[in-house]
Amino acid sequence: MDRMGVERSGIVLCGSNGITLAYESFGSEADPPVVLIMGLSSQMVIWDDDFCTGLASRGFRVVRFDNRDVGLSSRFTHAGVPDIRTLISNPWGAKVSLPYTLADMAEDTVGLMDALDMGSAHVVGASMGGMIAQELAIRYPGRVRSLTSIMSTTGDPSLPPPSPEALDMLFWPIPVDRNGYVEYFKRVWRLLSGPVYPMDELDLERLAALTYERGVEPASSARQFAAILAAPSRRKALASLDIPALVIHGDRDPLVHVECGRDTARAIPNARLVVVEGMGHAISRPVWGLIIEELAGHFSRS
């Protein structure tokens, strides 16, 4: 148990969809399950320990995991680096070999749920994780008790793009030395979290070091980015959902414009939209309380 008396599994490896995923759970196995899916090139530890503990203390079993190609889960080094520039210029018509798709990553999540004997779960995704969660709900609606999409998008091409600074950030070189990576990590999250609710500097230092120690491969980011770029709009498919849905988005998000969150909420029948004033593209410590409260209420109502 942790200092709040919440049960914690420690890191566990399991087979899923032909690969290995690393996961960790917080809370009692008897409590309603919640699966947290993280975003582009981000390891599960970005769902902070204290955030997971805080949510679990509300009476839920919270599971976080490393998506394929990051952290301690299976890597796709053999797949090389996809042609990102071709995908950007013609995302759906480009003839680019993809190592995997968002649909594959949704299958990974279902495989993890199978391994944990979860018939269904409350599914929460942030950024790319929200796209994966949407894919999961579209393909396996019976496995989703409720859907929460945080700072994510339907992928519709008519939506506003990232800010110039955030778009440029996606192409910053990722250092492979420890000091260089730590500084890169802090620079990225300072930009993403923004000036109103910036990431805590001690959190940034700790998470940067932990992420580096758990393993960093720059090409992984490109492979996941390719999966995002190649994915078609989910707007039409989301309209068919009959699942309790919550959409959370910051109005100062530089990477995924707040209109993308509004579009997601419009697409899903009866979805509830929460726009957090001042929040950027990060779940920083000052907004934890609000988001945990929204999630817990959403799960309970569902």
Q: What do you see in this structure?
A:
With 302 residues, the protein is of the alpha/beta class. It has one domain: Alpha/Beta hydrolase fold, catalytic domain (Rossmann fold), CATH 3.40.50.1820. It is built from eleven helices and eight strands. The protein has an eight-stranded mixed beta sheet with strand order 1-2-4-3-5-6-7-8, sandwiched between helices. Strand 7 (245-250), helix 10 (258-267) and strand 8 (272-276) form a beta-alpha-beta unit. Helix 3 (102-115) packs across helix 4 and helix 6 crosses helix 7 (201-214). The two termini are 28 Å apart. The model has no long low-confidence stretch (mean pLDDT 95).
Stretches where pLDDT falls below 50 for ≥5 residues?
none
CATH topology type = Rossmann fold
Shape: globular
- Spatial strand arrangement across the major sheet: 1-2-4-3-5-6-7-8
Q: How far apart are the termini?
A: 28 Å
Mean pLDDT over the residues: 95
- What is the class in the CATH system? Alpha Beta
Helix content: 25-40%
Sketch the topology as an H/E string, one letter per element.
EEEHEHHEHEHHHHHEHEH
Q: Approximately how much beta-strand content do the residues carry?
A: 15-25%
Number of strands: 8
Q: Give the count of structural domains.
A: 1
- Biggest sheet descriptor: 8 strands, mixed
In terms of structural class, how would the helical and strand content be classed?
Answer: alpha/beta
CATH architectural type = 3-Layer(aba) Sandwich
CATH superfamily: Alpha/Beta hydrolase fold, catalytic domain
Q: Helix count, per DSSP?
A: 11
Rg over C-alpha atoms, rounded to the nearest angstrom: 18 Å
